[in-house]
Design a protein that fits this description.
Shape: globular
CATH class of the largest domain: Alpha Beta
CATH topology of the largest domain: Diaminopimelate Epimerase, Chain A, domain 1
Number of helices: 6
Structural class: alpha+beta
Distance between the termini: 7 Å
CATH superfamily of the largest domain: Diaminopimelate Epimerase, Chain A, domain 1
Radius of gyration: 18 Å
Order of helices and strands: EEHEEEHEEEEHEEHHEEEHEEEE
Oligomer: single chain
Number of domains: 2
Strand content: 35-45%
CATH architecture of the largest domain: Roll
Largest sheet: 18 strands, mixed
Helix content: 10-25%
Length: 263
């Protein structure tokens, strides 16, 4: 009987039971899609990552409980953390992942892990019919990135108070919806929340991939390239961000909370 070690890591936090939990399953070889989807459904966290060696690097795929996704920040952070923590990669090594969004890398920076992701600029456009009503908000500005809709609100208080109708929101044609505003919490530049009921996640606790859009969005508005961001979900999480041309450097911390054998 084959057993596989699976880890659960809280990403974008320095303490357990905060940030965004991700499953990490390190395999010797590729696994069948149906099996990975079943494991992700069993783990029942926003995403579970599956990685195996590939030409000296790693192949990495992510599954929500419902579908496979093209890009996942907290799952990548968790995967890199596990490789270093378990000694598979030495501390000074760069983690290199081949994914459906191209080559992604991660490097240790003291207590933080810095990931190199694509920048996904936001094009301003009118909010789709029913979106603002589904969110129950008044928008300052709306737009769309490659993957998601972005809705800017007037204040952090408005972002925190947003209470979507997820049944209605599920029918909006997009992977997810990001609501964001300038931060009023000291030490942060902007805040956000992320809703993706269409892919089985009503609210994602901390969404690295959303910041591929938020970083160029706020860079354009504020005329800066470096930010400290806070995702104000119930669990919450902290990200350090830097726009570097066509790439976004996303930094976070991670904590392993669970290791078990998947039989």
């Amino acid at each position: 009987m084959r057993t596989t070690l699976i880890h659960q890591v809280d990403s974008f936090t320095d303490r357990p039971f905060a940030g965004n939990p991700a499953g990490v399953c390190v395999l010797e070889r590729p696994a069948e899609d149906d099996w990975m989807q079943s494991v992700a459904r069993e783990m029942n966290v926003a995403e579970t990552g599956f990685l195996h060696p590939k030409e000296g690097d790693w192949a990495l795929r992510w599954f929500t409980p419902a579908v496979e996704v093209d890009l996942c920040g907290h799952g990548t952070l968790a995967a890199a953390h596990v490789l270093w923590e378990t000694g598979v990669l030495p501390p000074e090594a760069v983690a290199r992942f081949h994914t459906r969004s191209g080559l992604l890398t991660a490097e240790r920076r003291g207590a933080w892990i810095e990931m190199d992701f694509p920048s996904l600029p936001v094009q301003e456009e009118r909010a789709p019919e029913g979106l603002l009503e589904s969110l129950g908000v008044v928008a300052v500005r709306a737009g769309r990135s490659r993957d998601d809709l972005v809705v800017e609100l007037e204040s952090e208080a408005a972002v925190r108070a947003c209470a979507p109708d997820f049944t209605r929101l599920r029918h909006v044609p997009t992977r997810g919806v990001i609501v964001t505003s300038r931060a009023s919490t000291p030490g942060f530049d902007f805040v956000s929340r992320f809703f993706a009921p269409a892919i089985g996640i009503d609210e994602d606790p901390v969404t690295g991939s959303a910041h591929c859009a938020l970083t160029p969005y706020w860079a354009e508005k504020l005329g800066r390239t470096e930010f400290s961001a806070l995702q104000v979900s119930k669990r919450g999480g902290v990200l350090r961000l830097r726009l570097a041309g066509p790439r976004v450097k996303i930094s976070g911390q991670a904590v392993t909370v669970l290791r078990c054998e998947l039989v």
